[in-house]
Amino acid sequence: MSHLTNPLATVGQLYQRDTLPEELQTSILYYTARLTQAAGILLRLPQDITAQANVLLFRYFLVDDIMAREFSDISAATLYLTAKISSSPRSLRSITNVYAYLLSPSSPLNTGPVANNPDTYYLSEASYIIFRNRLLNIEGQVLNALGFNTHVTLPYPLAITYLQTLGVFAGDSKEKGSKFAKRTIEYLNTALLSPQMLYLTHQPASLATAAIYLAAKEEGAKMPEVEWWEVFDCEREELGFLVVALGSFRALVEREEKRWEGRGMVTRRDVRDVMAKSNGNGQEEEETRMGRLLDEKIAA
Amino acid sequence: MYSKLKSRWADNEGDVALDAQRKREKEDRKRAKAEKHRQADEAAAAAAAQAAAAVEERKQQEQSHQELASRPSKRRKLSPGPAANRQDIAKETVPAKLLRFPGGQWKKCRSVEDYEKLNDIEEGAYGWVSRAKDTTTGKVVALKRLKMDNATDGVPVTGLREIQTLMYCSHPNIVALQEVVVGEDVSKIENIFLVLDFLEHDLKTLLEDMNEPFLTSEIKTLLLQLTSGVSYLHTNWILHRDLKSSNLLLNNRGVLKIADFGMARYFGDPPPKMTQLVVTLWYRAPELLLGAEKYGTAVDMWSIGCIFGELLTREPLLQGKNEVDELSKIFELCGIPTEVSWPGFKRLPNARSLRLPKNPISQGAVIRAKFPLLTTAGSALLVSMLELNPAKRPNAQEFLEHAFFKEDPKPKSTAMFPTFPSKAGQEKRRKRVTPNAPVRGKVPELKATDFSGIFSGREDEEKGGGFSLKLI
């Protein structure tokens, strides 16, 4: 059965995260997931592995303090871990190189004109070893937080099965069908980046159904006039929630881009700066500064 | 943000008119739910009062888990949504019965300090195993510590695969992974322990220490249990890839469980490219020795065949010194493959360098001679398990349905199994002599080998006391 289901976040886990303001958490989740996705593409990993890594990343965030480690480090460690147990492992050196590139000023994640300057993402042997050791430590932390349960069921195969059931690829509609399917898969990929952590709150069957629903609307596909989603064990209420969550994602991204001024990735320092600013409290700022110094010392 | 978006979804025009009614309904539901909550809380409090403080926490977790399982959509209903819509629309129709899948949850590992170590059992290829007691429940378990050899790669992938497959598996003949615990110092996760069922024996040690071999009825029961476990694995797309007597555990109630999933992995159809460096040499199938890159469930079936032979004689069946020696021992026992009996075997990477004798003897004859006490059905089964051509070996399901298990003597009930003194429970074990499973790394190539001499001295061999009745 676990080929069809995922463990879901408990209500307790979802409400525990009140250490940071909601909007900052949203930014952290979105930017970190996007970083994993970009790294997965550069590492030429099959999308299912990148997707699993992002699900594990969010599961980790629900257990450990979100500010305990640098977000990009956690992203790199989960991606390394997921690839390692899959049939397409990636070396630590490839991972560190890709992340050094994506976090550099030359990163394609930064919006606006970017000058490609290899000096900015060159990783010396010494910094490679430091980065590597940090990743290996975090890998253990991630496994510990997940109780070593690394199994993730993805909705992609289900979505294709559902589309076949709906007769999307039948007869002469093959070309239209594959366009429809592509759009469905794109929605499922989008859902991975959603700070609402849809893969942690909904089973793959519902995610697949919602993606099909949206794709059908967009492609103008003719769907059955009955409540077809019930055939796929998705409640109308659940479908509605997911459709809204996915539909509002574009607006969310635009808001985030504006908030962080086209930055490629947010860091703990960025988050602390915003916190300090919003507090306007000198003492708080001092504390943050000390914390940062401490972190830098540990990182070095 | 949420409420605004929600209204966007509920774009039905009838909604507006029905708003008041819906509100009323919602309030009713809210009240009913509060009542339910109160009752549940009371029940939980009553239950908790009875239990001790430590047990109490576990119980509540279990309870909440059960609650989730029995009413899985409960949480979802917390969000006030267009549920009312649905009632409006589907007023006449009966609400559909939707399948709900309780998926479980994840949480942080417990500490190994929650277990009290009783004694060491053995050191295997992947880690140390010791017997321990859960200090809260008093349950005796086996703690297997993962070896962290390749520290430069982090947690070893074999260990992670073992955990992943064992967590997925739930079968009476597969050792159950209860949880994973870590060492006290969590700033660095270096000590990882698998909490497994404790079983008194492993088949290897047991066979070595027994004065009399197992009875045929007992062998049947053991083989049926082993193969039903393997059948479960194969139907769930898992290859064990290291079946051998020392990885089969037996408890004092006659239940056999498959252990050590360090080599296991998921496979697919068509089979993916996998390493041939799997399965302990003495149990390794000929297609692996010949370097096949694509193989399947038949490699596990070969190992079962080897274990079958070992159960009969209490000696591992094919004790090769190295890959070449193993292959020649296999050919000696099972005959020489031909293009007819195994189409395409000549194209396997390591087969090209082999020089095989021209006139091969018939397959099966040697096996029948080696096990003269086996019935016709029994030897037919063993011969088919040790088919050189993987396609001809029966699969797990066919094995379970074989006539051998239907004829007398019938498989012995596990409850009637004899008990043995447990080495794992009391004293330190003898170091095991089976070679370990191959280490990940470079695949050794078979050098050009001349096998034509294997049978040269056959005529001079003693034929024994003339008891060759079974020889066909």
From TrEMBL, chain A:
An annotated GO BP: regulation of transcription by RNA polymerase II
Coiled-coil intervals, chain numbering: none
Cited InterPro entries: Cyclin-like_sf, Cyclin/Ssn8
Listed name of the protein: Cyclin-like protein
GO molecular function, one term: cyclin-dependent protein serine/threonine kinase regulator activity
Automatic annotation (TrEMBL), chain B:
Annotated GO CC locations: nucleus
Bias (Low complexity): 42-54
Family in the record: Belongs to the protein kinase superfamily. CMGC Ser/Thr protein kinase family. CDC2/CDKX subfamily.
Provenance organism: Calycina marina
Protein name: cyclin-dependent kinase
Class in the EC hierarchy, top level: transferase
UniProt record, GO biological process: regulation of mitotic cell cycle
SMART domains with a match to the protein in the record: S_TKc
